[in-house]
Write a structure and sequence with these properties.
This protein is of the alpha/beta class. The protein has nine helices and 17 strands. Helix 4 links the parallel strand 6 and strand 7. Helix 3 crosses helix 4 and helix 7 runs parallel beside helix 9. Bound molecules: 4'-deoxy-4'-aminopyridoxal-5'-phosphate. 4'-deoxy-4'-aminopyridoxal-5'-phosphate binds next to helix 3.
């Protein structure tokens, strides 16, 4: 048993009866968490006289032992949120059970999902004429769900393809409607975003689709094309930059995001949709992907990813506490500028292939002039506790993903390491 002297130990306080050992309400327990953690949980019980063994394993390693994780995913979440989730994992507040165990239709989970939605609405200033859905299946499922909900097999739709994810979305849409690529950056290895006037949109298209941030290629839309289709419908996959900066939701018909990366565990999928676009699903649309059915059932038609939604809620709360998305964007810009500047000042030792005006604040791909040193770079960085810097298998090189949860200190450390590595290998 860990002792109370350790900041990460579990401490039994005021010994209780052995009654119903194993039942979570049978003994009073105070969980000691690292200093950065929110309030410890305390479970009280009246009949308490005998010491019992706490069935829980000791808390995991200290927060300060965490490494800097530059992974592109599945999820990179703030330390504060992980610690809070850890403290609430066993028993959520007065419920006596974990969020994972509670009924998704009970009052406790209802309060969790409703708060998550209202905090997200506050963060993104989502207008009332938009519905928010918490679904599952990841953004890949939305590649199909969007055409299945917004158009019929004979309808045409336009895709601007600025990277592999936009390409995957287009290929999936082809199964359900007449999808067309109206601009592709493939010939230039997905390093650009077109000037919007150069894109020949189909006025009869049902929607125009973009991927707001290409996670693999590091290309990010800084503003958005105006859809020229009759309905004026722009659809965006925001999986890898969701909640990283303010977004004018009113410019979009649909925003969807596999909520991992910035806001929760993989699987949770958030859809923000203009309400008048709901209710046009093709007959073959699976019920759990039917926006109308999910909207009518407050995302609870089938069992939602309860724990994932709870985690998203913790992240939204944290982002609001940070001062909202304007403040979050400022931090993200500072980190990204530091890193991109380091490439530009390296006199070609480090190279970023992406056109400067559309470089992502979230995913930063780069290569070494001497490509034979790349494996060494990644290995040495890992020894310095900076991990997951290998580029995506389809493009090679390196990639530093610097989501909301990456502290400035992580980027500063990477930049210092890059300078040192260059000095030793120039
Ligand atoms: N779109 C983008 C931009 C992504 O980064 C990803 C995942 N990395 C996806 C879609 C697919 O998401 P999922 O794996 O959750 O289906």
């Amino acid at each position: 048993m860990a002792t109370a002297a350790s900041p990460h130990s579990l401490m039994l306080k005021t010994p209780s009866t052995a009654a119903a050992a194993g039942a979570r309400t049978a003994f009073p327990v105070t969980t000691r968490l690292p200093a950065t953690a929110p309030k410890p949980i305390s479970i009280k019980c009246a009949a308490a006289t005998t010491k019992v063994q706490d069935p829980r394993p000791p808390a995991p390693a200290a927060a300060q032992e965490r490494i800097f994780n530059f992974a592109a995913g599945p999820a990179v979440l703030p330390e504060k949120v992980l610690l809070k989730a850890q403290s609430e994992l066993y028993v959520w507040r007065e419920s006596g059970m974990s969020v994972m165990e509670m009924s998704h239709r009970g009052k406790d989970f209802t309060s969790i999902i409703q708060k998550a939605e209202s905090d997200l609405r506050a963060l993104l200033e989502i207008p009332p004429e938009y519905a928010v859905l918490f679904l599952q299946g990841g953004a890949t499922t939305q590649f199909a769900a969007v055409p299945l909900n917004l158009c019929h097999p004979d309808d045409s739709v336009d895709y601007i393809v600025t990277g592999s994810w936009g390409d995957k979305a287009f290929k999936e849409a082809q199964k359900y409607c007449k999808a067309k690529v109206v601009w592709s950056g493939k010939a230039e290895k997905y390093t650009k975003i077109p000037s919007f006037e150069d894109v020949q949109q189909d006025p009869d298209a049902k929607f125009l689709h973009i991927c707001a941030n290409e996670t693999i290629h590091g290309v990010e839309f800084k503003d958005y094309p105006v859809p020229k289709n009759k309905g004026g419908i722009l659809v965006a996959d925001m999986s890898s930059n969701f909640c990283s900066k303010p977004v004018d939701v009113s410019k979009f018909g649909v925003i969807y995001a596999g909520a991992q990366k910035n806001v929760g565990p993989s699987g949770v999928t958030i859809v923000i949709i203009r309400k008048d676009l709901i209710g046009n699903a093709q007959g073959i649309t699976p019920v759990m992907l039917d926006y109308k059915i999910q909207a009518e059932n407050a995302s609870l038609y089938n069992t939602p990813p309860c724990y994932g939604i709870y985690m998203c809620g913790l992240v939204f709360e944290d982002l609001l506490e940070q001062g909202g998305l304007k403040e979050v964007e400022k931090k993200n810009k500072k980190k990204a500028e530091l890193l991109y500047r380091a490439f530009d000042e390296s006199k070609g030792f480090y190279r970023c292939p992406v056109e400067p005006s559309v470089r992502s604040l979230m995913n930063v791909p780069f290569t070494l002039e001497k490509s034979e040193l790349e494996a060494e770079f990644i290995k040495e960085a890992a020894k310095e506790k900076m991990v997951q810097l290998k580029g995506h298998r389809s493009v090679g090189g390196m990639r530093a993903s610097i989501y909301n949860a990456m502290p400035l200190a992580g980027v500063e450390k990477l930049v210092a390491f890059m300078r040192d590595f260059q000095a030793r290998h120039a």
